[in-house]
Amino acid sequence: MHRPLGAALAAAVALGLTGCGVPIDKQPAALSRHGIPFGLLNPTSATSSPTATTSPIEVPVQVFLIDPTDHLVAVGRDVSVRPPDLQSVLGALVAGPTATESGAGLQTALAQTTVIDASIAGGIATVNLGGTFGQLVGPPQIQAVAQVVFTASSLPGITGVTFELSGSPVEVPVASGVEVPIANTSQFAILAPTTPGTVP
C-alpha cells in the first residue's frame, strides 16, 4: 500500500526535526522571555524625532516719537527679548514710525541712526550711536536726544543717559540748549508728552 506523496514528505520532515533535537509542539505556545534574543525585546527605531523649535516671545515696550505739535508721544512696540534689554528697545526706536503712525503725523529725528551698543550701570544708561546722529544740529538734535532719553528711561531703574558717538563720549544738548554729560527726562519738560498713555 502506497502512502500519498504529501503524507510521506510530512512524515520525513517530522522525523528529520526530531533527529535534530528540535521539539515539535502540537499547538502554538508563548515563548519564554529567556528564549527571545535581547535585541528583539528592546527594538530601537532608526528614525529620529523632529527637533522642537521655540518661537521668540515678544514683549511690549514703549518708544517715543514726535507728534505734530513737536511733543514726544509714547507708542507701543514688541521686542523678542525677555526681559527687554536697552539695546533691543533702542533698536525699535531708531526703526522709526510705522506707515500708520506716519499717516497720523508722527515722525522721528533719529532717521538713519544706528545703535552700536547700549548698557546700564548704576542707573545710568550709556548709549553708543552711529549713522547720522552725529550730523544733527539745533532742534532736530535736541529732539533726537529727547527721544533716546525718554525711551531709555521707560525701562526700570534708568535715571539718566550718557551718549557716545562711535565709541567716543560726547555731551548732548537738552531743551535749554545747554550741553550736558548726563541727560534725564526732567531736562526736556518742554518736549514731554502732553497726555499720558501709549498711542496704539
Strand order of the largest sheet: 3-4-5-6
**Helicity, as a percent range:** 10-25%
Order of helices and strands: HHEEHHEEHEEEEE
The major beta sheet can be summarized as: 4 strands, mixed
> Total number of helical segments?
5
Using the alpha-carbon principal axes, give the shape: elongated
Please report which band the strand proportion falls in: under 5%, 5-15%, 15-25%, 25-35%, 35-45% or over 45%.
Answer: 15-25%
Give the low-pLDDT segments.
Answer: none
Give the rounded overall mean pLDDT. 82
How far apart lie the N and C ends? 104 Å
Structural class: alpha/beta
Instruction: Tell me the radius of gyration.
Output: 38 Å
Number of strands: 9
